Fold each of these.
Amino acid sequence: MTLQNIISMTFYLTFVVYVIFGTYSLTVSIKSRLNRVFACLCFCFALWGFTFAAINSSLTSEEALLWRRMSVLGWGVVYSIMLHFSIVLMESSWSQKQKKTLLTSLLYLPAVINVIVFFIYSMPENGHVQMIYSPAGWITTTDVIWYDRMFLGYYLSFSLASMIVIVQWYRQTDSAINRKKALAILSSFLVALVLGTLTDIITVSYSNVQLPSLAPLIIMIPVVTIYCIIRKYGLMLSPQNINESQPEGIILSTLSRTRLLKYVSIVMIVGSILNFYDRIRAGENSITGLLLSFTLVLMGAVVVGIPYLFKSIKVQETVLGLFLGILMPVVMLAYFNTDFINIIWPVPIFFMMITVIFNNKNIFLVLGALSLLMEVILWILMPDLWLMVDQKFYFYRLLFYIIGIGMTAIITQIYVLRLQENSKQDAFQKMISQLSSDFVTMNRTNFDEKINQLLKKSGNFTRTDRVYIGRFSQDGKKLFFTHEWLKEGITPLIGDTENNVATTLAWSIGQLLNNDIVYIPSANQLPVTADEERQWLKKQKVRSQILVPIQSNHSIIGLIGFDEMHGSKALRVIDQDWLRVLANLLADAIAKVETEHDMNYLAYYDPLTGIPNRVLFYRRLEQAIDLARETGKNLGVIFIDLDGFKEVNDTLGHDWGDQLLSRIGKRLTDCLGEADLVGRFGGDEFLIMVPQISHHLELEKMAGQVMSIFHRPMLVAEQELYISGSGGIAVYPKDGENVNSLIKNADLAMYAAKKSGKGRISYCSGVMKEAVQEKMTLTNSLHRALEEQELFLHYQPQVSAITHEISGFEALLRWQHPERGVISPEVFIPLAEQSGLISSIGEWVLKTACAQNKIWQDQGYKPVRMGVNLSVEQFRSSNLERIIRNCLDATGLEPQYLELEITEGIAMKTSQYVVRQLEALKKLGVTISIDDFGTAFSSLRRLKDLPVDRLKIDKQFIWGIGENPRDEAVISVMIHLARELGLEVTAEGVETAAQLAFLKVEACDEIQGFYFSKPVSAAAIKEDIYQNQFSRIKNNSRCVEALAGGVLS
């Protein structure tokens, strides 16, 4: 082989290498601007190398000059692209999008001028550029010195500018790895600049050595350096995307398809090299042959990029089939009528072998038909062929055998890999089936065990060194590793990571939050922006990594990671569908346990305050009682009730009330010890358990701490609120030996504290417990009193202060207890109201009193009113009007003879309901009186709006007549007020003649009291009152009139 052919072949190989480097950078990350600029740089170098190979192997000076003129598109532009690459690599402000137009103009305007000028002055008719043949090839000579100097200035200035930018990057970067990258690139640029200057300028200008320009070969130094940096430091790499799903029924996996296309590309490139070599060896290097070699290399580059250009597998196979369909006739026709006509016939067979592993049978049919057609065409064009078989033919035959054997081996390997993948898929499905069966019984208690089993099986299946689970915080700013499985000798991840691991792994987490699987075959392949993550992986000794997002309820809650740490090779790519299945299984398990946790929380914790609710408090208190019983120590229960909490809700709203309860719950929790427990009993009530008390002073100290939380204001909605609380304390075993009795007695003590004043706390005592027991006993007896006919009515007459005639009666309830005798209404009426019996008892009183009044009328006595007291509960009842109407209908009593007595507290409520209820009763025809008038808060404006008929002055004022002038003044005002409002007045509790005389002088309408008669039974009314008592009234009338006269005087 001659020196000329060696140099030509070298140039051609540099062309091939540059195309490979440029294609590789695009396949690494086609979206990266840096990768795209580097690819343009490589393709420009490739064009330079190809045109120089064409120049050096040209047969004539004219052909060499043609290629020389074409070469300016390479060497005339490449230094602008080199500076552009340096600027983008440095991430200078000049590389920002808003300055893109200005940067492009400044960088490429000199290149455009350079290309145009050279095209003009290198035209053949000008004769400025001469191609001189030498044993090494064609040498370029020019007689335009100014252009050489212009190009030299462009070449040196842009090269130096590129190195200056790299130096600035080196000085400005904080990353040690970036400094290494900058230093390596700078060194390679400097070496290439020195060598290029020596060969292209000094040797040509000042030496007799006649060599073609070796710049395309020398510039390989920085390009190879950048490639090495890509492989070692991941300069322009990004982690591979394994988020593509593998379609069903496809023979080739994504990895296998990519590998096959690389093999096809290699065959095309090797064919290109052989074609070029054979042409220059035979001295037949025509433009057609060169273009065939160039086309084969470009097609090989495009074939490699098919998976990155097209996502659809069908489109990928169609594009490859189209390339093969074009390449087959081109190759066969190119070698038609040459010495290779006898050995190109197997080419169609090789092409059809590739289609065997495709899923598209149409490609196979088209290539098969095309193969037959080409063979027929060759048969027609050359029916007879005589060749001499020499060593060259045997060599090419052996080469074709090797290609056929290699393709067969590749296809066989693909099918074997596919069978292995099927086997692994079966094993994976069995593993998932087992895990799914195990997870059916998963709960909070065995969650960790089940998860660890999943990690172990996953690690063994994927043959990785470490498998782990990470969970994100609610805001996504923190990452916590919760579970892991390790091979022997592997460093644990849990407990050995920084607190800011989420910040460290920011790049990967960003991909995960987009629900993408992250595959990092090497830490060096992380992007430049992930330098902190790269250092973390190296610190953890992670060689390769796969991170899979765990998605639940449309949000990423965590990840499952696979780390390879000891292997020499990168972690094998796992089918993303398998990874998703594992992640979904984990997501379901986590969701199930979290749901169970939420249910448990709702069952045992108060959702408002976050503290234990009544159920959990009871359970813990029961356990504490058992422990106290074993240890012989005491136990305290503190019952806290807020004072005036209803007013907070009524005035500020329930939202503020809820926030207040939450703040109090937190304060109570903070003031307790580790063994103590606080729970919300309900509403504004809290329970506190203080276990294992050795001395009562411990409980007193704790009670003081609890009550002290109310000394400071509560901050609610940025406003301070003061509220107090009352507390009661019960102690085990003195105040109870079970949960219910302790809480009951603590509650009892709390109510006693409230009665003594707000903001206090008291211990449960024997007197309290006796009072409660008494109350409970009477309440139980009261439930049976109505059925056992233990209740009865007494009636007290109401007498006219003027005529001394009976004007009405008031029915008063009494209770004859079989064991305790007569029980005062002041004792059992509150019990009836608290127990809810007051409604049924009140209805019985109403019916009995009406019936009795009707009986007296039927017996011929003068018809008078019957007053019946209405309790608060009766008045609130929506059925009150119906009950009274039914009572009147059932007894036959006329409505005007029934008077309903309501307390002053009911009458003075501002609710419109009170007015509507009174008006409805008035429509029935009954009269209404306000009982015990003057004892509660009264409003004159309110009084004038009420539809009432009578005021009953409370006996407390009546008893002050003759004793307290103020009472007498108040009575006078009351009577005068009633007169002005058109109301009648009844004085209660009249017991003396002096009292009667005063009331008569003040023009009081009626009197009621012991002076006339105490409350008596219906029989006594008939026998004593109607028959005997009038004579006593008449006998005393003169005395009363005398007293009245004295009062007037």
Amino acid sequence: MTGNNRKQPVLLLPRLKADCDVKKEVAGQWNVQPEKAFNDVANSLEYDAPGEVNRISSVPTMWARPLTLEMVLYDRRHSLRPVMVSQWQGMLAALALAELRGLPLTAQLIELGKNNRSFAKSLSDLLPDYKGRNLYILNNKHPWEDVYVFLWNNKPVGMSSPSTLVVPSEAGNWEDLPWWNLEKQCLEAPQSQLNKEEKGLLWGWLKNLNEELDNHNGHEDAINIIQGLIGEFQSTLESDPSKKEILSEEPQFFGVPINRGALIGLNYPVKAPEQPSSVKLIASGKKEGEKLPLLLYDPAMPGVWGEEPQNIWIHGGKTLASLRPEELEELKTRWKGEVIVLEKEELFLEELYFIDLDEALPGALLPDARRNDSIIFNNKRVTPLISLNPMLLDYFTPEDLLNKIKFQTLKGEGNKVRLMLNLPLSGVQENNSNGTRNNRPFQDYLLYKDYELKEENLLPDQLPVLEVWPNFQAKGWKEYYGFYYDADLGEATFQVSFPKARYAHALKQGRGTYQMVHLESFPECIHCLDGDKTIIGLILLKSPETVSLSKNWSVGVDLGTSFTNIYVNKKDVPEPLFLENLLHRVTKSNRETRLTVLFEHFIPEDFIPKEKPLPLSSVLTIKGRNVKNEKMLSIVDGRIYVPDSSRFEPQEDWIKTDLKWLPENIPFNELFIKDLALYITALVAKAGVKEIQWSLSYPSAFSRRDKKRYAQVWKDLTTELEKTTGIKQNHPEIDSDNLRTESLAVAQYFADFEGHDLVYTTCIDLGGGTSDISIWEDNQLLHQCSVQLAGRDIFSQFLAMNPKFLEQKLKFDPKKWKDLRGGAFNAKMDVWLRLESENWLRSQRTLLQDDPDLQGLVRLTAIGIAGLYYYVGILLKVLNAEEKYQKGQITPVYIGGNGSRFLKWLDNGGEFNKNSEVNELLSRMLSAGSGFEDTEQLTRLSQRPKDEAACGLVLQGTKLKGMGKKVKDPLIAGEKFEIKTLNQANNEEENTQIISAESRLWVDEDLDVIEFKVPELVQLPKFLCEFHNALRNLDIEEITPLKGYVRSPERDKNKKLWDDTERELNNMLLKLKEDAQKNGDAKKNENDKSTDKIRWEPPFILGLKALLQVLGKEWAGK
């Protein structure tokens, strides 16, 4: 090299021997040479390089490389043979293992006969002579005319040959192929780079290739030579002839079909026998098999595990080596329904959100502080949301997932936190020396993502209310409810979604957002969302206690007008149902906000009063209900409301009271019962109960229609509850002892719980809407009835008439009671009476004993209770006349129910006992009504007011008789009554039935009632006269007489009073008829008679109620 070209490489050809056979030709011209010319050139080169084999790279022909390889392979004595055979083997191995190892090999078909480019035309013009060395022939084509060029990473590295099958190129770059010698820049024999399994698979592939050579009319000598070379290659590998080779299922694995002659043997790379996936997530035991297998795809896995990529199996015959990244999405679609494939990045959420409060999620699972760094932001501990793909919870329990994550603060990198996730994968199966596989249980794989703590991802410390009910798990239990309220924080806080919710209802009220959901399993996590409904984090919930169910309990439910009570019997011990808080509180929300919203929209956290939460108010809240639901759903559309005396606003349209009696409230009554039954079932299930025997009470004032409907409601709901809770529900049949009148349940309470004898006794359950009466002799039931005269008639209605009394004497806030009417007023008054009246009686009753207004109220209440006793006296007289009651004396009275508290109002000291004056008055009223001697019988107040019926329902065994008798026991009128009926079966004949005061109020069920009336009040004036006589004769001081009243049973002596009373009575009778017509409009059976629809009341009781209304209005100045 001289001059300016000193640094430019110059190609120097080897020197020829002096006696060479190569003739000199004109430079730059192509010409045709015989086949032996290549041998002449090779043998004529003069070189001397001991210990190293030279490569020919400048033989002057366009087909030099394939012809040189052909020459070497066909000459066993050629000095280049070892090197070129190794390269030939290396290329065959690359083709064979391309899919298994995921090698970037592709092919392109070159059809020289169809290519008009000058270079291609030159190649075609100079096609080598193939005779004697062709492995296949092509129809109407020279076998060299169609060749395949093989590319590695889209760069040519070799070609096909009809004489040698493949030809590795001289300057091909097989970068990253293990048997590519980087230093020498050439392929080498692959054996040292293959594992045992790969050697066996390659042996089988070569066997298949060897057999393919016999199928394409090749020259016998050429086939023998190449088959020999293949056999030699096989001999260096480990074979297992018993195993059939498995080839690729891809018909164009290399991008084009390789189908020219024997080259078809190259078209299908080897495919290893599919092994179980190495990257399958090992699920928690209880989660195994619930979902499709989850596979993790991460190209970095070989480096983490120290394994070759071809040893890491994915799915469908694909290994990490054979699965090309660009085909992953297509494979995910192809494998849909078989497996789920996630990439590493898909396991983590994009950002990490956190709450500006330490321990902000008391109901959540949070990383253990002992193994996790505290996350600090602005020098304050914060609570992170879990920034992971919620799909992981399809495979792990919340506890298991939590154990697999760890938060780590990155020191010296500002506000950065690393979230590490250690996943158990199925792992690479190890080969044992005997060829079997060692199945390890799992192989950990650690991933992580680094997050920057950003101000915009900080959630405020004012948190939404987030609750789940109930907080336990039990076999078969599928009734769970979730509740969310954003506390009017709007976009400042997170929203939520409950995965797997069976039903969800969201609504906006004012500035607040609410959500209620129904689930079939306790939620494992809650998704936290931003305003665009994008998941910003997870709240993992603590798995609640799993309860073992083994007990059988009897549950008694006394559904009252004002209150509802529940007793249970476990091991023959009756007791009130313990109202345990079953809420699972997720967030550390503001207590006042939480308590209020749970009372109105969900299930209360606390029941009022805490020391004695039962009985529950018979009040329903439907706030937030979904009006689109044709059938209202438990909890979601309505819930038991637990009011307090200060905040209770029963006039709101979302509060429903008077559930027991009003026809228009039947749907809400049924919803209340559904909620009640569900809530009770949850409480007893938490206590380990597997079977419930329901016992129910009902007022004997129920018509037959009422009783049937009530029994059917419980039957339907308990049948459904059994399916959704797994708790055996034994509902009471309509004629069973487990469906009893309130009067019988109360009597059993007095006899079997308090231990009183019922030798000759009257039991009264004085409730809010009805008084249930039973009369006994020698523990034998003589008569029972239910009358709609109770607390609301003898007390609450008077206060509703006189708001000034409420404000001035009871110190009520008039704003909170203004415009309250009917059921709304009664409901609020019932709550005050239960929660506050005892305190008022203790502190104010004595001080106001001489107050005229209070005396007036006491008088009215005394008349109401005395009138009830007078009616009981009438009952005793009639029963005696019917020869059912033999004693012929007035009876002691055992009285209970929430209305029995009004006896305390009749005593100046606010207490009722055997020394109270009213005892004498009530005994005298029994005597006056019955005509029996006044033996000064005492009234005994229940030890557990309002508990009597519920307790009596669950008492096992009784000394009482006649509890289950089916004989009709019609009401006793107490006043003369006329009923006009129509007999449709007898030409619509009308008939008027006269019922005397001492007769039974019974109407033939085949007749339609068209009119009824009280022609004249006789017994009621007698009662009021006897009442005033008793006040005078017994020297009663604590109850004052009516001003202006003339003590006489004659109607004319107090004409205005009785005229007004009769007018009020007629209004009541009209309403009774209207109610019957409303029931008639809803009748479902043409055979239903009007007698089934009328809730009959004794005329005496109707008259007494009318009298009380007249006197009440007079007291209130109306």
Amino acid sequence: MRSESDLLQWKSEGLPRDDLSQENAIAMLDAAQTPLVVDPANQAIEWVKTHFRNNNVVTEITSVHDERFAHTLELAVRFGKTLLVVDVDGIEPILYPLLRRELLSTGAKRVVQVGSKQVDWQDTFRIMLFTRRTDLALPPGAAALVLEVNFSVTRFGLENQLLGVIIQHERPELEQQRVELLKREENLKLELGKLEDRLLNDLASSHGNLLENAALIGALNDVKMQASSITEALQQSHSLQMELDEKRNVYRPFAGKGATIFFLVRDLEKMNRMYHFGLSDFIDLFVECLHAYSGDSDVESKIKLLTLSFAQKCFFHVSVGLLKSDRLVFGMHLLQGFFPDEFPPSLWNVFIGVAAATTSTPTTNATSSNGEVTHGGNAEFPTWAPATSQTKFVTITADELAAGQVQKWQLGDSERWSKWMLESSPEESLAKDASLTLMDQLLIISTFRPDRLFDFMHYIIVKLLKLDTLVPVTSLEETLSCGKATRPLILITSRGADPSLEIQDIALRVVGKGRFTQIALGGGQTEDAMLQLHRCAAQGDWLFLKNLHLVLDWALILEKELCAMPIPNAGFRLIITTEPHDFFPVVLLRMSSKVTIEAPPGMKQNLLQSYTTWDEAFLQGKTKTTSQVLFGLAWFHALLQERRSYVPQGWVKFYEFSSTDLKSAADVLCTFSRDKVDWTTARGLLQDCIYGGRLENSHDERVLELLVSRIFNDNTLVRCQQSLYDGMHVPATNVHRAVVQFIREHLPDADAPSILSLPDNADRAVKEQFAVYLRENLRSFSHLAHVNASATEAWRTLLTPVLELWATNGLEPEGSVVPVSPGDNNKNPMTVFFMSELELLSGIVSSLAATFADLCCVVEGTLIPSLELRREGTELIGGRVPDRWLDLMDGPKDVKLWLALLRRRRDTMMEYVKLPFSPSSTPFDLMDFLRPQTFLNALRLYTVRTSNDSLVELRLVAAPVGGVADGVGIGVILKGKSIHLQGALLDAHGVVSLASACSPSSTLLKCDLRAVWVSTRQANDMVASIPIYTNAERTTTIMDLSVRCDADVAEKLLLGGVAAFLMYA
């Protein structure tokens, strides 16, 4: 360890004054191992250089990327220098012999292998490794050879740094007094240390009797007097320091909030690799906020206004670098940390879904015997609420504090809340209720009207941060003009977005063609790009590098070059475009300004993009008929792409329809006759070769087939008798300018779902999905979501409620489960299915029992958890179901509800195994089955054995009771109350109708279904088919639901993506 005088000396050399930095400095200088210093702000390297220079230590600085690195290393070893290696990304092979001290004796000398040479070893040789990467991960073999020293910023250190910035601006005389006091105090302490050393030296050098040594006694008295005066001076200095700190601490709340905002911004790194923001840019914003203030001079009000102003600046600065879908996430995360009183932590955890397992255990009435959630805690689920709200309601009422809030909501007032559910903007009426806090409103909207959560969050952010809009108003030109030569501008682009033309126009307007250079990367242009970088930096020109994501290996070299190059000309600008990538260099992101460029959504923008590709020269050589066909193709292509915004309703998954597909289709259509189009061939190529090859779902294939047949025909594209949408026909012209003008005039900026042939309430489903996305991302910021692996005791404490949840759930493994054997083939197929289902469920229970037994051992301290066990325990602590469990059984994401469903399924299968199967004995609930498709296949075998029909001739028909499936075959009744229908409504009589704009995104079936296997001779084809999936993501099809309707409604059901699914949560 080091003395206080050493620490004081280091501080004067530039070492940060916090305790962590001082401990790091001791480790760097005194540790036997080679230090690997994580130094994102370059504070440590600057201090080390100053420290060694003051102590006359011969040092040399190099980079592992330097061509002469091996030679520099060799000389440092040979002459015993101290080598500082910067920009380290890993341990280079040449360093291993040095780090391991693999010394060889050759006579009186010792040598070490450096590359291909054996170099004389000098004991004075030292090496220190420095990296700016906070995400650097070394393999175990390399990590054991170095001592990691982390100089990353801490909250307390940043708070003190910001406080110094404030004082320097607001009360510079206080900062000057503080510096003088600290200097005086340090000098006094150094003098006191010297007196102590002198005293020890005098005592050590004295001879004879100490009491008779008059010179020694005089010297001791002199030391005592000086020490007394120094001590008194230190006490006075300390008193003055306390008075000064009181004056400084008036501004500490602002500094504390500033530090809080920085760490809230840093949490964004968990969402997206591209969301890394540097500390220097943050401090520049802080200083800018101080300089821009011109309000009240009263300190208290000034601090409040400055704090809010800084939060606003940070929000806009960060938002320009975020995707639009993530701005609300950041805004709410910022508010939750910035206004903790408005969002109490316990209620916030309930809202984002991380506190479920740590709250009270589920009550006995949380799940009824048939699996329907009807109560939660002491609050009854309201009758006016949609069934999709049950899971969230139970989660809320399971928390004691949240349950108390629910009692204040007066949910029993059915008349009031029923009207509220039908309002187009229900958040507005909630905001007028003074009895509801913001957190109350957030929970209510999230639970009962999640489709309005997006709008309500927008309202909250604007209100609390006092903003006019969430959309940053800064243009690209302003960003470039106000930028710095030392800060590159990274444009993060999404698919379909290309800012190249806009950047080129700005550059030509601002600096002119002669001072603007653009290079498209990805084709071997990296050497030229590096040459142009140095030239433009020296001359003050603009350099535009496109598609950096295509050369990420070179991006690391660019990052090192930017860090090492001298300060560029003030007029220099480096502009980079890249798509998001998980391996983009972090340091380059932190040292740059970032702006996201996203393609505007909608049919209008999509069509305009197509006609940017098909320029005037392209259309001039086409006949009017060909031009009309191409417009129909552009419309068709836009339709396919824009339906992806409504996954899984528009398409079951996000298919990669691209500009390549459009070009291929255009080439095909242009090869047909100029006057006559072979529509059969054209439709076949579009449907089967160009677009259809990407589809992976039979329902989507039928949708594509219908869209192709509706658009690509003479009536629509040649004679223009049939409209594309709402009376809009294909423009009968081949003039490029006229077509573009037609698009601009006839298409809206924002699309209604109907333009994509989707139900009017499709937007509601999309917003509900986005609400889930918001909550999942906010949950990723939660401390419970990232339990510290080193906090073992805290982890064990949090596990206790999880173990209690398992103990009270009644899911003990059953020891009497009889496995299905080959001899069971002669049994009733349904009985065999029930036995195999029970066997699988019992296996899941046994697996969970083993997991909870291991967790119990962890709590008792008899087992060290594995990485997988720790990961699962962390998920359970947050109330979420681990991914491995979901692989075993799909179900709710809430752990209490998932376990309740598992118990329900196992208990139901045990009852089915005991009783003989009879199709008419009782209605079956598909939710009770782990494999509902297998249940229906077992019914198929049962039908074959009973009716003697051929297996291959049977076809499954499922329809509402009283529909087409009645009176034929051997069928079973399926309960409709666990099946949700999306995009349409099905009444108690089995009559289907299209959903309206105010309809819920999905509704429970109000009638039961009859499923029966019938021969193809008995099948009735005069119906529409609605697919039923295992979950809302539509990953696996169970069967098709047949409903009677006319052909027009059947077509709308197909194009509208109408489907049903089992609703777990």
